[in-house]
Amino acid sequence: MTVARILAKKGREVATTQPHRTLREVANLLTARNIGAVVIADVQGRVLGILSERDIVRAVATRGGDGLNDAVSIYMTTRVITASEEDTVLATVEKMTAGRFRHLPVVKDGQLAGIVSIGDAVKFRLEEMEREQSAMREYIASV
Q: How confident is the model over 47-77, as pLDDT tens digits?
């Protein structure tokens, strides 16, 4: 199964913001949407960075409540690892595990095309394994 199939099923909507926004604004966005990360993008849809709940916690631990008034650009991850729609779910999980992050922006032709979380990847991998197991049971029963 590929990332494209995950996006086809879950949708391509991605929460984005601009680098000048404050951590407080992004924390409110994460809370309102019940998500764990937001992609920082320019007006053309190019990925500039990513900011997660973990980044906000680090900022508050370092600067206290005043950190919430800082620009996202100070704390965002700028070396963003991305996926393509052709990547397999297994390759996606391996990238997230190796990098110790839970959200992977999907880029197509240099533009943001979606986002996959570790939860999305695990869910689709489990569904795939269930289908394979069911097909195997049906095959064995028919022999």
A: 999 999 999 999 999 999 999 999 999 999 9
